[in-house]
Amino acid sequence: MANTVVYSDQAPAPIGPYSQAIQAGNTVYVSGQIALDSNSGQLVGEGDVAQETHQVMRNIQAVLQAAGLTLRNVVKCSIFVKDLGNFGLINEIYGSYFEADYAPARETVEVSRLPKDVQVEISCIAVQ
Prior knowledge:
The chain is an alpha+beta fold. The chain has one domain: CATH 3.30.1330.40. It contains 2 helices and 6 strands. The protein has a 6-stranded mixed beta sheet, covered by helices on one side. Helix 2 (87-96) links the parallel strand 4 and strand 5 (105-110). The longest helix is centred in the middle third of the chain and has 18 residues, at 49-66. It is globular and about 40 Å long.
């Protein structure tokens, strides 16, 4: 089975040696998304965790759409945050993007630093 690179010009281009997502069979592995704007390449809401979280979720949606999927197809998310003190707000925003009956499994981990010093990064796995 060959892996297929998934790319969306509606999400930020990778800033390193990785793909936005890889499709292997009926599973799509979306790389960690941060709050970069796809048009400007600039951070959105720098330091504002709410704005960053919304942009991250929009980026994930764009990559999923390029694979012909939606957030309903997401089965697992990994959330990395700079400060777990922001968990409540991030959780509220993140949750607003998923229907209750389709909420994926996930973990949330506090880390010391994220790319470009953002507040939040989210990756996911989706299945057709």
